[in-house]
Design brief:
Strand order of the largest sheet: 1-11-10-18-15-12-14-13
Distance between the termini: 48 Å
Radius of gyration: 27 Å
CATH architecture of the largest domain: Orthogonal Bundle
Number of strands: 18
Number of domains: 3
């Protein structure tokens, strides 16, 4: 893989290469003629389940079950059938997903199948019908319910747990939540695990059997229900097979013409250096060969937004009827919501039938795009790689421009799992006979590497269990330190320590022999809690520890310390929301406007009071090796203005926040305030103020749609 250098803001240079051609002429290699003949829609036969689907339904009746099958193979259908059976038996199903977007998508689907009254939803933003027969929610909510069940001693009222996208067990940031669920879950509740990208499913199953005392049946399906054919788009506009045909069992190689292109000293360019290609030309080529709709994976939000401006051809919307249908559907989705009706990207959407989709957009606008794409109104969607995980966007083709991705710190090569998640979006079961992954050349496209990913099996998942203060407080609610040590010994990390040489070596390096490092980390956390009077020396929670355990936040101790030291505004909801916003902020700021005369005096005093009062405690955290976030006034000011009904667009303009980032700040602040509102017994005044603050900040356009995501018209927000 070539290294990227982004220290300079100047566009990179590619000296010695000829400029890109102005017009790409559609063409295809003659060997593709028979491939393109396969394009079309399958015959409208009645749905017949695959053998692996039937096997999974039978397996979950008598054991846990892990289903590892390609994206689009029909894993959700298994979940639907099992949940239906449980519901008919008057039982309850909990369906957990890693993403709010996926949660909303599954909720919509299940509501259509089983009726709205039978399906509830639980995320940090929405709580609706939580006692329904089927509850769709995020894994964090399920983990918190398990904490509560262990504390109260009550049984979790559930007869089946479905964990979707279970490869998140290996996610560095959130994998610990998945692992905790599997450790804490009562053995009586069957566990159905669904994933497309697991390299070591049998190891995970053996671990679950060892801690749950029951069989875990592994069902694998390796073949895609819709075959995937990889293509290469030459800068001239000609499509070639990416790979050369080889005899069975032999390693595949780049197609000879792609190989020749890749080894040329002076390659023709798809676009001038530092520029995006003319996507209108590319879309016309894909349209010529019936390869639309397509999802384009780009490296940044800015590229996604720029891409739709390069689709300036109106040739794709040839049919007046189709153009009218798109316009009518957009009107239906945005009607009554001025923020969506006047969205700055609506014009491109209507003119080109293309859309940008990324986390920088308002959640409601993303839902508009998702609805249009899923219902077949769009020719193309330009998205970052994060959209590949879980959400079902029907596309005949995916187009990949880079063989690496930005992980928030640096550019790293795509993993086999990430590539399979992206390419897995191509080819819609029941809608396509064949799907296509189309590779575009460029400075950051390593053709040999990406070709290798086509046949590389998914990577193994490793344990990501870590210790944090919220975990320690909640486990000490119901366990002694010795019992917690036994719980940690049930972890996937512990199981991997006893695995073969390579896996065991990785685990021992990370967790130490016999989980020594993990246990010492727990002790360090508990000892700090004891020094600060949240825990006694023998590991029992003090009164402060009891209420602090309810703060299931990223920075529970800082918030708890702020409350017990009376550093937060107790009776002013707008001020409380503003100060809590500085705790959840994820952006770094270099300019400190604390001495700006325009800064509201009350906000400045409240912010300085909290920051000054917390400084000694934050220093202690850092001295003991724990993280303490910097508190900045900028997010507090934005939330203060928002709570006082300043227009959303006015606040975002010039703030350094994209609309989606500001919406995320508001939603996360709302979740933190909800946690504080649970302290009504210990701190009734600030708990009530926190509840009032939630109502102040969760409003349009951040919260604009009901749990029925097919209707974005104005609804009362749900608290």
């Amino acid at each position: 893989m070539k290294k990227r250098f982004y220290s300079s803001k100047k566009p990179y240079k590619q000296s010695g290469n000829p400029p890109a051609k102005k017009n790409m002429q559609p063409g295809s290699d003659k060997s593709l003629k028979n491939v393109f003949k396969k394009i079309g829609t399958p015959d409208g036969k009645d749905f017949t389940p695959d053998p692996f689907q039937i096997q999974a339904i039978e397996a979950i009746k008598k054991s846990d079950c892990l289903v590892a099958a390609p994206t689009g193979a029909g894993k959700t259908w298994i979940a639907e059938q099992v949940a239906k059976k449980i519901m008919h038996e008057k039982g309850k199903t909990w369906y957990a997903t890693p993403l709010k977007a996926l949660t909303n998508s599954i909720h919509t689907r299940f509501s259509e199948l089983f009726g709205k009254d039978n399906v509830g939803i639980l995320t940090g933003d929405i709580k609706n019908n939580p006692d329904a027969a089927i509850v769709i929610g995020t894994t964090e909510i399920l983990r918190n319910q398990l904490y509560d069940a262990m504390y109260t001693g009550e049984n979790l009222t559930c007869d089946l747990i479905i964990l979707d996208e279970v490869h998140f067990l290996g996610d560095e940031q959130r994998g610990v939540v998945w692992e905790e669920i599997m450790i804490y879950l009562p053995c009586r509740i069957p566990l159905l695990l669904l994933s497309a990208t697991i390299g070591n499913p049998f190891q995970i199953a053996k671990w679950l059997e060892s801690i749950r005392g029951k069989n875990c049946h592994v069902i694998e399906k390796h073949d895609r229900p819709v075959p995937l054919f990889p293509l290469f788009l030459h800068p001239s506009g000609t499509l070639f097979p990416l790979m050369q045909k080889t005899q069975k069992g032999k390693k595949q190689k780049l197609h000879k013409k792609v190989f020749k292109f890749n080894n040329a000293k002076k390659k023709p360019l798809l676009a001038p250096p530092g520029k995006l290609p003319r996507f209108s030309d590319i879309l016309n080529i894909l349209d010529r060969y019936h390869l639309l709709p397509a999802i384009f994976f780009l490296k940044s939000r800015a590229e996604c937004d720029q891409a739709i401006k390069l689709c300036n051809s109106n040739l794709l919307l040839k049919s007046p009827g189709r153009k009218k249908a798109l316009s009518c559907k957009i009107n239906e989705l945005v009607s009554g919501n001025p923020h969506l009706e006047n969205h700055h990207q609506r014009e491109y959407l209507e003119l080109t039938a293309t859309a940008s989709h990324h986390s920088g957009h308002l959640p409601a606008w993303k839902v508009v795009v998702e609805q249009l794409m899923s219902q077949g109104f769009l020719d193309a969607m330009f998205a970052t790689s994060t959209v590949a995980a879980g959400v079902n966007f029907p596309a005949r083709s995916v187009v990949i421009l880079n063989s690496d991705r930005f992980n928030g710190v640096e550019f790293i090569p795509l993993t086999p799992g990430e590539f399979q998640q992206m390419s897995g979006r191509a080819g819609r079961r029941g809608m396509d006979n064949i799907g296509f992954s189309i590779i575009l050349p460029g400075k950051f496209m390593d053709l040999k590497y990406i070709a290798g990913l086509n046949n590389t099996p998914p990577s193994d998942i490793d344990s990501q269990i870590t210790i944090n203060f919220s975990m320690v407080l909640n486990l000490l609610l119901s366990h002694t330190p010795d019992q917690i040590k036994m719980l940690l010994e049930k972890s996937f990390a512990s199981h991997q320590l006893m695995s073969g040489k390579k896996r065991g070596k990785r685990a021992r390096k990370k967790f130490g022999p016999a989980l020594k490092y993990l246990w010492l980390d727990f002790i360090d956390h508990m000892e700090f809690l004891a020094k600060e009077n949240f825990v006694t020396r023998d590991g029992k929670l003090t009164d402060d520890g009891l209420w602090a355990s309810k703060l299931r936040l990223d920075s529970p101790l800082l918030v708890a310390q702020s409350i017990r030291e009376n550093l937060l505004p107790e009776t002013d909801p707008a001020l409380l929301a503003a100060i809590i916003g500085s705790f959840v902020n994820e952006k770094e700021f270099t300019d400190d406007p604390l001495y700006n005369k325009a800064l509201p005096k009350r906000l400045k005093e409240a912010f300085l009071n909290a920051r000054k009062g917390l400084k000694p405690f934050a220093v202690k955290l850092i001295q003991h090796g724990f993280h303490a976030p910097n508190l900045f006034i900028q997010p507090s000011l934005l939330l203060y203005l928002w709570a006082h009904d300043e227009p959303f667009e006015d606040i975002v303009t010039g703030s350094g926040f994209a609309q989606g980032d500001f919406a995320r700040l508001i939603l996360r602040t709302g979740e933190n305030l909800r946690q504080i509102s649970k302290l009504d017994e210990a701190f009734p005044i600030i708990a009530k103020t926190a509840k009032d603050a939630v109502n102040l900040i969760l409003k349009e356009p951040v919260v604009t749609f009901s749990t029925d995501t097919t209707n974005l018209n104005k609804n009362k927000r749900r608290i």
